[in-house]
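Render Tetratricopeptide repeat-containing protein in 3D.
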Amino acid sequence: MRIYFTVIGLAGILLMGACSGARSSASRKNATVYNAAVLSQRADSLFFAAQRSKMLGDYRTAITQYADYLRLNKNNPTVNYELARLFIEVQNAGNALIFARRAAALDPQNHWFQVTLADAYAVNEKFDSAAYVFEGLTSRYPDNEDYLYNKGILLAKANKPASALAAFNQLENKVGVVEELIYQKQKLLLKMSMVDEAAAEIKKLISQEPDEIRYYYLLAEIYDANDHVTDAAEVYHTILTKDPDNPRALIALASYAKKNNDTVTYWHNLTKAFANPGYSIDEKVAYVYPYLQMMNMDTTKLEEGLQLTSLIIKAHPKDAKAFALRGDMFSQADMIDSAETNYKKALSLDDTRFSVWYQLMWIYSRKDDPTALLALSNNVTGKFPKEFMGYYFKGVASFLLQQYPNAINSLNTALEIGNGEKKFLGDIYSLLGDSYHATGQHRQSDSSYEQALLLRPKDALIMNNYSYYLSLRGEHLERAAELSKLSLELEPESPTYMDTYAWILFRQEKFAEAKEWIEKALSYPEAQKNPNVLEHYGDILFNLKEVTKAVEYWQMAKDKGASSVDLARKIAEKRYIQ
């Protein structure tokens, strides 16, 4: 615009008849032409640079370059179009619509610009407007089937099922019965609660390809989802006439029979499906897996589940998943020897699945076989060095074997890996507390227990062990008493926790209170057989000047298996020895 006004101004000077002005005017015209050429060259350079950036996938740079171009030539529809496409790519829906509208307004006859405008409306969820654009394109290009299809899709998204259905019917009249089109129509009909009409659409596909089983599945699913069970069952029976061992039909009919309490038909169809090697093992496993939860409420599910897993193994004898599932079934039923056998078989077929190794380690921990658990966990940590639970079980086994430094190393490695569940982190810190205590590293022991309590603030066992160790050392007795008392609030009927609290009170020289609590503990039969509780009672009695009775309980402790040198001296010298 500035160039235009400069020329007009110079023309006025010419009218005044100045000859020198004529030479000046010519000079400025040449400058104007030169500037326009420079600007045009600059614009072309920006355009091609933007094109290169776009091809390299650097959309942000391309957007900047196209925007710079528009400062020089804002009425270029192609650049507005390119910006709209790029903003769609970078998920900036608002800007995409701005530039798509400009492109379409500048060149309304370009159908690509119209398509981009529809896309921009769609990403802004203006589905009505997008459908309207495709309606215009359909009118201009009546032979383009995609435009009519897109119109129907967008009308469906705009929640106008009747209008969308009309568009799809119009398209069907042009192209005939097409699977994708029928699929879209039946969805709309179901949305409008027109079940029979939706089924009729699928029947068109069946009539066209009567041997295509997928269409029968789709028809049965429509009936099933809308409680037309009789119609669904009829379709599944039709499938079995074409494919007598079809597992999907057998499973569906088994389900219907179960709802009707027809146990014979249910079990016949179910076992026939499971015996079929062509029925995916993954689907079989998915079907059986809920039995693991149901077994807790219905013991008959164990027998049924084991029968099904037996059929899976028979149909898939080389698949580790079959044996792993059967192992899970036995493990849930606490039949750990059978579980172990099946887990080992699964691992012999496929030793890459950590979940099976985990289950086997869990079995060994339940069997109270720390030597076997340590050997197994050593193997697991070698195969899966980044798995938290391998080191956890290795730490447990080492602790049980009194290999406390090894336990500490394994448990700390588990913490370094740091991907364990919170419940196991609490166990690790608690076990570290025990292990550090056993090695005399009391500061680390206390720190581990405090961390365990942060993770499990209502764990009575952790409180009891921590407070007892503090009492043995005679340190932080107030903290020990606080924790021990809280453990008793959580589990008030535990004689073990009563003994711990009594012993803490004893270390605080609160002998009368200590006697009350240890006598509460001794009211339980298991405490009367525990040599530690009996010895503690003797210690308390001695400090209450009941020497004869104290010696009597020390002797009882010895008779129950206590064998410390200090206990022998207590009895022999008839005095308390700390």
